[in-house]
Write a structure and sequence with these properties.
The protein contains twelve helices and nine strands. It has one domain: Alkaline Phosphatase, subunit A. It has about 280 residues and is α/β, with parallel strands linked by helices.
Length: about 280
């Protein structure tokens, strides 16, 4: 079984990431990973795109149509599929991930922050509830979960890019520094992860416009990067066209060797080492 880490950089837009993620771009240049340009689904809002990321379904199907829709996921998702196969799941993530995949009902900070032996689809979770919670602490939380519980699927979900974008606008110095800082953090941990045999996916849910907003279809709100590091993935730059965000969930299933749920894409738009001829067929 291939263990997989997903790093979800909340609100990390395509252009600012490519200009500042130096180590990640180095790995792509040296063909140690693959990079794709992803066209996000709509609305380009957080909670709907979390559900799209993990179910492979559009908002009109999964029903999380906006950030105010607060309920657990009603669809098979990567976490539940892993649990159904006896795999261990873990997440260091924002409170909305708990509401979707771990513990039903509104998140209660003093009750729900630590769910180290949870009964939901996320088996081991540490959840933060303030958008300015430092990404450095978030990665520390995730490393604790990784080393303590040895999960098969582990989510790192950072929020500082989104926070600075809402405060100062996408492309502001503060937003750009947040992108540079978190991608540097990921770069510090990535060599050890890869050395230990982890597959790593780094992407975002949506982008951010100059006014500090997201939700609509313009590229600055919708287009995000996807970095892949796995022996199952053909290395190189695949940025000449945009692929659908609906590929993310079935890609994770493919990496984890878990059967995708009904409704998920079966032929993903990602170049895999075992079926390179299927590239760009959708």
């Amino acid at each position: 079984m291939a263990k997989t880490i997903l790093v979800l950089l909340d609100a990390c837009r395509w252009d600012i990431c490519g200009e500042n993620a130096g180590y990640l771009e180095h790995l792509i240049d040296t063909r140690q990973g693959a990079k794709y340009r992803v066209r996000g689904e709509l609305p380009s809002m957080s909670r709907p795109m979390y559900e799209t990321t993990f179910t492979g379904l559009p908002a009109s199907v999964h029903g999380i149509t906006g950030n105010s829709v607060v309920r657990p996921s009603r669809c098979p998702n990567v976490f539940s599929l892993c649990r159904g196969q006896g795999l261990v799941t873990a997440a260091a993530a924002y409170q909305w991930m708990s509401e979707l995949y771990s513990r039903p009902g509104r998140f209660e900070p003093f009750r729900d922050r630590y769910q180290l032996e949870g009964e939901g689809s996320i088996r081991h979770g540490i959840f933060y509830y303030e958008d300015h919670y430092p990404d450095s602490h978030l990665f520390g939380d995730g490393e604790f979960l990784r080393e303590r519980y040895h999960p098969d699927f582990l989510l790192f979900h950072s929020m500082n890019i989104d926070y600075q974008g809402h405060q100062k606008g996408g492309g502001s110095p503060e937003y750009t520094r947040a992108v540079a800082a978190v991608t540097e953090l990921a770069g510090q941990l990535l060599p050890a992860w890869l050395e230990e045999g982890w597959q790593v996916v780094i992407t975002a849910d949506h982008g951010m416009n100059a006014m500090g907003l997201h939700g609509g279809p313009p590229p600055d709100q919708r287009v995000v990067p996807l970095y892949l590091f796995s022996p199952q993935v053909v290395p190189g730059r695949f940025e000449e066209r945009e692929i659908s965000q609906l590929n993310t969930a079935p890609l994770l299933c493919r990496l984890l060797e878990v059967e995708p749920a009904p409704g998920m894409r079966r032929n993903i738009e990602i170049a895999m080492t075992c079926d390179e001829k299927k590239v760009n067929t959708i």
